[in-house]
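Review this today:
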Amino acid sequence: MAYKSDIEIAREANKKPILEIGAKLGIASDDLLPYGHDKAKVSQNFINSVQDRPNGKLILVTAINPTPAGEGKTTTTVGLGDGLNRIGKKAMICIREASLGPNFGMKGGAAGGGYAQIVPMEEMNLHFTGDFHAITSAHSLLSAMIDNHIYWGNEQDIDTRRVAWRRVVDMNDRALRQITCSLGGVSNGFPREAGFDITVASEVMAILCLANDLKDLEKRLGDIIVAYRRDKTPVYCRDIKAEGAMTVLLKDAMQPNLVQTLENNPAFVHGGPFANIAHGCNSVIATKTALKVADYVVTEAGFGADLGAEKFMNIKCRKAGIAPSAVVIVATVRAMKMNGGVAKADLGAENTEAVKKGCANLGRHIENVKSFGVPVVVAINHFVTDTEAEIQAVKDYCTAHGVEAVLSRHWELGSEGSEDLARKVVALADSGVAHFAPIYPDEMPLFEKIETIAKRIYRADEVLADSKIRGQLKEWEEAGYGNLPVCMAKTQYSFTTDPNRRGAPTGHSVPVREVRLSAGAGFIVVVCGEIMTMPGLPRKPAAETIRLNDAGQIEGLF
């Protein structure tokens, strides 16, 4: 049987005018700023007006460690949201926006898949409502103002060797990772080393996604450390007087974007911080607003539960004062086989032994998520090549670990295929058994926070960090930053810092390469192993096959 591509399915969507979707949530047309007919921003006035309402229940969708076989976390998030609406619940979806870099690189799109998608798919994966461009511009304004400050006399006595603020662009461009800027003589400033990150790795992105409102946004922007003086004291964004203009550029980007699923259910798509170098969740303002207008809010966190769910719990929920009522861990039979040692080319053949062997990775994630005090259900995202015996092997493994695994066929059937999962999620969320708590307190010393995550989540024996890194953490504690959570930046493919170690390894160490203070976002970034904040394009980027066809339609977005 030939299946349609995601973009073909999305193109056939029977979209409703966005004002109708807003009306489902009780948002009046005056409180929606339309971007065309099928997307709109929600006004701050409306957001302010619903603050006295009780919160709905928050459902987190996370996953096993990503494999080339694919897990389908966003697809499951969308499918579950549609399923909840299908069984009569008032539900809403909150996901991140897509970055242009990965879309033209490996991914080719990030709006779900099959019959569980958010539309308009093409716009969401391209310029959308311009939020990422605004973030890039605000970041670039600060970059320009730092170098301009140095050029016009350097009143803050910035040590040009210690400018910490890198530049950004929303594209995978390895040539920009390390650059020399200000060449060309006196009129161009003082030559120095610099570099580019991808926009989703910008601290401005993390700040926008953690800020409660424009006032909070401006304060956080002002708190960004941009450089250090010769006496090693920090220079803040507010010392350069850039935070006001940056807030102006981000004024509209702060407003959540309302769109719809293929089944015309409402979704907020807002923000997109990296899940390595930042916390990898959609914006706090979108999630908290959704909780005021829906009874169930389905959201996701980037990568596997060891990164995304851990940061969702320890950073986003802690900072935003919210708590999940249930967690869905997405797994696929194909990914279990890959974790069990099967090569990608051989995934089509039945192999229940490999499934059983690979389930160790899933089991580790189940234990970890439960340790936050929230109930868990496993969603088996169905692939047409899955056999009954393989599916049963996953179900049996989950039963032995005290959780239920539910087969979900949303990719193929939309909400009809996710009804069982939706019912199970409602039962868990309504059971009242969730007693959520982060796994470390604010007052714990920073290095102990790192050790707690490494030992409890990654199951490492030790954290390796030299005296320079430990000394830096002590300095930050003495400067008043000791209460911040830690944001672990490591490979998403393994519990270890080695991307090739699948399954559930033990007896490993976590080497800390460097630590960075994101004072505006409000966390300490802990870089473990090799992590790229500016990806490169693959040998055959998706961009090679993305084009307009004769009908003027986009081809090549997956």
